[in-house]
Design goal:
- The protein is about 55% helix and about 15% strand.
- The protein is an alpha/beta fold and about 210 residues long.
- It has one domain (about 5-205): P-loop containing nucleotide triphosphate hydrolases (Rossmann fold, 3-Layer(aba) Sandwich).
- The two termini are about 20 Å apart.
- Bound molecules: thymidine-5'-phosphate (TMP).
- Thymidine-5'-phosphate (TMP) binds near residues 41, 71 and 102.
Length: about 210
C-alpha cells in the first residue's frame, strides 16, 4: 500500500470545492492516476441516507449534538467501507469534506467545542488525511455566491453569523493540524482557485 494518499478538500459554502475536485479528477484521468473521488457526508449508501436526514430542510430543529453524532456516524461508515479499502488498493482518495468540517461547523459554529468533536470522532482520529486543501473564502464573498445559487439545504439557511463562525472554525482546525493543511485563496476567480489547487496536489504527489 502506498502511503499518504488520503487527500481532503475543505471550505465553507460556495468555496468552489466541487468544481475543484471535478477538475482534479479530469487531470488524474489524463495522467492515468489511480484514484477514487468521494464525499462526506455520503459516499456509500448508509452515509448517503444519513446525509438526507441531516440536510433535510424539515429537520431545522435538530439538536447540535444529534447533528454532530450523525456526521460522525456517516464518517465511520464511509471510512470503513470506502476510504480505507481504496487506500489499501493503492488508490489516491479525493474526499470532499472530512473531520475538519465537523471541527468548523459543529465544534465552533454550533458551539459544541473542539474537545467534544474530537471525542465523538475518536475512531476517525486514527485516519487523519495526509493532505488537506483548504479553500479559504471570506464569508461575505461566499454568501454573495450563495444568493446566486438556487439549491438550498438546511445548512444554507444559516445566518451570516453562523458562516463567520464556520470560517473561524476552519482557522482553529488549521492551528490544530498545521502540517497537513495547504491554504488556497478562494476569493480569486474560480479558474485561479482551480489552478492553485491542481498545482498544490501535483506538488504534494511529486508529479
Ligand atoms: P456540501 O455542501 O459540501 O455537500 O456539505 C454538506 C453540508 O454539510 C455543508 O453545509 C457542510 C456540512 N457538514 C457539517 O456541518 N459537518 C461535517 O462534518 C460535514 C462533513 C459536513
Amino acid at each position: 500500500m502506498r502511503e499518504k494518499n488520503f487527500i481532503t478538500f475543505e471550505g465553507g459554502e460556495c468555496s468552489g470545492k466541487t468544481t475543484v475536485i471535478a477538475e482534479i479528477v479530469k487531470m488524474f484521468d489524463e495522467l492515468n492516476i489511480n484514484y477514487v473521488s468521494t464525499r462526506e457526508p455520503g459516499g456509500v449508501k448508509i452515509a448517503e441516507d444519513i446525509r438526507k436526514v441531516i440536510l433535510n430542510v424539515d429537520n431545522v430543529g435538530m439538536e447540535p449534538e444529534c447533528e454532530a453524532l450523525l456526521y460522525a456516524a456517516a464518517r465511520m461508515e464511509h471510512l470503513n467501507k470506502k476510504v480505507i479499502p481504496s487506500l489499501k488498493e493503492g488508490k489516491i482518495v479525493l474526499c470532499d469534506r472530512y473531520l475538519d468540517s465537523s471541527i468548523a461547523y459543529q465544534g465552533v459554529a454550533r458551539g459544541l467545542g473542539l474537545e467534544n468533536i474530537l471525542k465523538i470522532n475518536s475512531f476517525a482520529l486514527d485516519h487523519l488525511p495526509d493532505l488537506t486543501i483548504f479553500i479559504d473564502v471570506k464569508p461575505e464573498v461566499a454568501l454573495k455566491r450563495l444568493s446566486l445559487r438556487d439549491k438550498t439545504d438546511r445548512l444554507d439557511l444559516e445566518t451570516i453569523d453562523f458562516h463567520n463562525k464556520v470560517y473561524e472554525g476552519y482557522h482553529e482546525a488549521l492551528k490544530l493540524y498545521p502540517d497537513r493543511f495547504v491554504v488556497i485563496d478562494g476569493n480569486q476567480p474560480l479558474n485561479d482557485v482551480v489552478n492553485d489547487c491542481k498545482k498544490a496536489v501535483l506538488k504534494y504527489l511529486g508529479v
